[in-house]
Amino acid sequence: MERSKNCVLQLPISNPALLEPFVDACVRDGVRLIAIVGDGSRKTEDLIDELIVGDGSDESRLSVATTSHPDETVEEVMAFAASGNADVSLVKL
């Protein structure tokens, strides 16, 4: 399944073990943006950034940007992620 280039990750995450495979799939599939919405989005953004960067030896992983949106609605973040007519998918883990 081809993933949208921009993803909105809606919190809470039902199973934290799903986060790392999701991030790896985003990197592999060429996702450009992971926008995290909901309570705890700043902490989740930090975790995702750590997963993306890893030990820093693979610069190809650094093409994914992240943003956190703790005080915005899902609709507002979807609109933000779609700016520039980007394809956006809403993800719930």
Task: Write out key terms for the chains shown.
single chain; 93 residues; alpha/beta; Rossmann fold; four-stranded parallel sheet; 4 strands; 33% helix
Structure characterization notes:
It is a single chain. With 93 residues, this protein is of the alpha/beta class. The chain has one domain: 3-Layer(aba) Sandwich (Rossmann fold), CATH 3.40.50. The protein is 33% helix and 22% strand. It has a four-stranded parallel beta sheet with strand order 3-2-1-4, with helices on both faces. Strand 1, helix 1 and strand 2 form a beta-alpha-beta unit.
Q: The CATH topology, please? A: Rossmann fold
What number is the mean pLDDT?
94
**Tally of discrete structural domains:** 1
**Distance between the amino and carboxyl termini:** 16 Å
**Overall form:** globular
CATH class category name: Alpha Beta
Strand content: 15-25%
Order of helices and strands: EHEHEHE
So, CATH architecture? 3-Layer(aba) Sandwich
How much helicity do the residues have?
Answer: 25-40%
In the predicted model, the low-confidence regions spanning at least 5 consecutive residues are: none
In short:
The chain is an alpha/beta fold.
Topology:
Layout: E1 6-10, H1 19-28, E2 33-37, H2 41-53, E3 65-69, H3 74-81, E4 88-92
Parallel strand pairs: 1-2, 1-4, 2-3
